[in-house]
Design a protein that fits this description.
The protein is mostly helical and 369 residues long. It has 14 helices and six strands. Strand 3 and strand 4 form a beta hairpin.
Amino acid sequence: MSSAADTESGGRLGNINWNALLVEGRALVALALIIIVFSVLSDKFLEPDNFIIMSRHVAVNAIVSIGMLMTILHGGIDLSVGSIVGLTGIVAGYLLNGFDLPLSEMVAYPAVWVVVLSALAVGSFVGLLNGLLVSRLHIAPFIATLGMLYAARGFALLISNGLTFTSLNGSAALGNSGFLTVFRARALGIPAPVWVMIVFAIIFSVLLNRTPFGRWLYAVGGNERAAELSGVPVARVKTWVYVLSGFCAATVGLLLAADLTAATPRSGELYELNAIGAVVIGGAALSGGRGTIRGTLIGAFVIGFLVDGLVLVGVSVFWQQVIKGVVIILAVALDQVQQMIARKRAADRAARPPSGPAAPTPVKEVVGT
């Protein structure tokens, strides 16, 4: 028989976290309703070709959302991910098109692996700057990443001069071909972004659930001061979550450039909002300390299937924005209601007298006169 402590500590019974299941269950119900409704409204919704297209869109958002989850778990946020997507795509396009070497008349054409590593390094470096601003200078994450949103987008426009790089095929003679072949590949008929999403989901799940870093991250999000007093390297954890977020966004920048066969400085706009929506719908708390990779993936599927379904049935772009916003607000509202109920129950339990054998009633000694 389970004790009261087993059922009340963290909402766990045995090895099952019922609170997490309840939160993710709402997202699963929403996803099931979306699939049912749009399957009825359109026969093409679940056709294999359309399903693959939707999965590719979901995967792109899910990868960015995984990085966003890292920052939200510590109680922060990363508004610069969309700009990092655009910047890294431009870096890749710039390098693939060749660049003039300083102090010479030569043009360099780096190999594809150099292009990929350079783009990932740029995205990670922008994330590192975010992390240092938040952890060392103690700038609020909202302000730090909002500033980086503009800075990264500005650098993308400066590098490209506001233009789009279209020649991403490279040349075998120059030794820089294969970029589109690698990032547009379909192993077993599944697009590359979906495979990358699966790999990232596995790696980050292990990171959060099987490593000290994951335990530190949840501890910092739950109570930063208590985590610091317990010996958790709070500043280091905060810095690394933004590096990971930048790395995820940089990966999407490469995938998106290959998918569009072009690198545009405006790529990735509003991706940060879709990522935040996926994380919130998946059950993460914006205050930090709660959230899972599984829930974030479910949230990404909810947003992706919802948007693609609305497009398929011909709903106006303006109404799409309204509906997506309402869904996100409802997800946050339901979460707040659940937390209020949980706090009220905890307060009621605390106010209840302790259960156990009743104390003996004192007997007054009657003294005869």
